[in-house]
Amino acid sequence: MTLYMNLAQLLSQRIEQGLYRPGDRLPSVRALSIEHGVSLSTVQQAYRQLEDHGLAAPRPKSGYFVPTARELPALPAVGRPMQRPVDISQWDQVVELMRAAPRDDVVQLGRGMPDVSSPTLRPLLRELARLSRHQAMPGLYYDSLHGTQALREQIARLLVDAGCQLSIGELVVTTGCHEALSASVRAICEPGDIVAVDSPSFFGAMQTLKGLGMKALEIPTDPLTGISLQALELALEQWPIKAIQLTPNCNNPLGYVMPEARKRALLTLAQRFDVAIIEDDVYGDLAFSYPRPRTIKSFDEDGRVLLCSSFSKTLAPGLRIGFVAPGRYLERVLHMKYIGTGSTATQPQLAIAEFIKGGHYEPHLRRMRTQYQRSRDLMIDWVTRYFPAGTRCSRPQGGFMLWVELPEGFDTLKLNRLLLDQGVQIAVGSIFSASGKYRNCLRMNFASKPSPEIEAAVRTVGSCAQQLLMENPHPDADL
């Protein structure tokens, strides 16, 4: 990433986090040049990029200012989940979302689907085709339970950017990140055990806990800094928690990146109470900042962190290729994988390995990060414009998910039913809670290239929400 893009991202983060408010004067070109040791032209290029994103406006002889018209919605409130372990519910709502097959007449804002139309994926498609034509048919054979050596070598190289120094023997290729999470949970926990999770939390991980007969203890989570360490410490003191499961980088659904100091403090807590950490980093490579944020695993010295990820969000979910670095739990994870799926499909592993080795992965990531960041800014602007007054939304620092909070007592289940009749689907907030909280919240996907159709779909969500509020102007009265 170029110097001006790094600087532009730093300034945009400060604006979005409220360090510079609408109407504030931004640092001068000369001051930034001295502070960051870059040329005046580099700073000017950074400001031009901020102008393109509507984050900075020049004033003659005065410098750059945050536009006064840019009134971002307030951040979502920190949730107040139940202060005890609970049996996980919401399966019916998850099935309803996952059952939704792609349809031309429905704009799908609810699924965790990246944009797979980018031309930067063409080398991957060519490699898949080449393997299909290869006379030796390498993709049709079983490979190691660990995964192909070629792919594990490339994953180990990629993880250096996340701060991890891992050998290929410490990696296990899985059938998507979902299997990585599932095998990790089964390697550590037994039915009836308690797992602490961030709240709101990825519904797939919680449904895994449900299916394995475990309980979730939801920990309040800040939309900018992540899981509350104070609340987690109290929970660890009070309950026999077996593991902590969370997504600290480009969180799903809140989009935050946990500050590095808090990651270290979280690991210290886990060491003190001798619990494992299951870290979901599936969106980590899509962080808008550079270098990409470090994982908690990168600080792990005693093997208690199980790092789970995949290529489902960075490349394509249909490849079904993920991986886990299970630390001290390697043998248990391998056993769980063996009794689950056995070895992972060989052909997509070989194709992805060649795609990365050929130098195609990083250019693809750069293109997608730029697209997703622009789409995020537009989606937030559309929410500001089309949703009811008082709507709150997240400030994603990576990935392609936006978390939206409507007034307390609002029912997004009703909203989703109304939207389906108009050709739009969202992800309802209640599936991101073990106990069905966040019913007044929803998640929307902004991965697709901005288009009039996407804007119209977001406008429809906002107008339908307004309609329901008019029918019930005091939704909290239902509570």
From TrEMBL:
Alphabetized Pfam families for the sequence: Aminotran_1_2 (PF00155), GntR (PF00392)
Keyword set includes Ligase: no
A Gene Ontology molecular function term of the record: pyridoxal phosphate binding
Keywords: Aminotransferase, DNA-binding, Pyridoxal phosphate, Transcription, Transcription regulation, Transferase
Top-rank taxon, per record: Bacteria
SMART domains, A to Z: HTH_GNTR
UniProt-listed PROSITE patterns: HTH_GNTR
InterPro entries, A to Z: Aminotransferase_I/II_large (IPR004839), HTH_trans_reg/aminotransferase (IPR051446), PyrdxlP-dep_Trfase (IPR015424), PyrdxlP-dep_Trfase_major (IPR015421), PyrdxlP-dep_Trfase_small (IPR015422), Tscrpt_reg_HTH_GntR (IPR000524), WH-like_DNA-bd_sf (IPR036388), WH_DNA-bd_sf (IPR036390)
Gene3D superfamilies: Aspartate Aminotransferase, domain 1, Type I PLP-dependent aspartate aminotransferase-like (Major domain), Winged helix-like DNA-binding domain superfamily/Winged helix DNA-binding domain
Residue stretches making up the HTH gntR-type domain: 1-69
Family, as annotated: In the C-terminal section; belongs to the class-I pyridoxal-phosphate-dependent aminotransferase family.
Listed PANTHER family: HTH-TYPE TRANSCRIPTIONAL REGULATORY PROTEIN GABR, TRANSCRIPTIONAL REGULATORY PROTEIN
The name this protein goes by in its record: GntR family transcriptional regulator
